[in-house]
Amino acid sequence: MPKVSHLFFRAGILFLIVGIGLGLIMSISQQHDVIGAHAHINLLGWVTSALFGGYYALNPAKAEGMLPRVHFWLYTAGVAIMSVSLYLLLKGNTGMEPLVAVGSLLTAAGVLIAAYVIFTPAAAGRMQPAE
Fold first, then answer.
1. Closest Cα to residue 49, out of 4, 12, 5?
2. What share of the chain is helix, strand, coil (3-state, %, to 5)?
3. What is the pLDDT of residues 2-60, one digit of tens each?
4. Model confidence over 57-85: pLDDT tens digits?
5. Shortest CA distance to 48 belongs to which of 88, 76, 67, 87?
6. How many Å apart are CA 80 and CA 37, to the nearest integer?
7. What is the 3-state secondary structure (H, E, C) of 5-29?
């Protein structure tokens, strides 16, 4: 399995642990004021990271080179920044709004890189798995 797949799966499982933990805290305390952060951590952090990891695992030729690594670091940093700052924003810290925006833009840039990777053919000359 390509290294970038492992990176996406590892990041995804860490996001899942945080998301589940946050969900448990909300459930136990009966305070659901940060449900938006919980949802973003689980959907963007766990689910989407796992999908990216799976895509690269199924398309190892596309997991080669610098772009997949940039994709991983940009997307993961964006989700982490957005999730933490969104949590703090929902807890009442309005000063976090610019960081939510920065994290969102980084995450969106990561998604655009994913779209580029998915829609462009693998580099000529590289072995591709049988379809």
1. 12
2. 80, 0, 20
3. 999 999 999 999 999 999 999 999 999 999 999 999 999 999 999 999 999 999 999 99
4. 999 999 999 999 999 999 999 999 999 99
5. 76
6. 11
7. HHHHHHHHHHHHHHHHHHHHHHHHH
Look at residues 15, 10, 20, 19 and name the one whose alpha carbon lies nearest to residue 53: 10
Whether 108 maps to a domain, the answer reads yes
If one counts the domains in the chain, the total is 1
CA 99 vs CA 60, 66, 95: distances in Å: 34, 26, 8
Please check whether residue 128 lies inside any domain of the structure.
Answer: no
Neighbour count for residue 37 (Cβ, 10 Å): 24
Residue 42, in any domain of the structure? yes
Half-sphere exposure of 54 (CA within 13 A, CB side): 7
| Sequence-separated (6 or more) residues with CB below 8 Å from residue 39 | none
Q: Residue 113 belongs to what domain range? A: 3-119
In this structure, is residue 30 part of a structural domain? Answer: yes
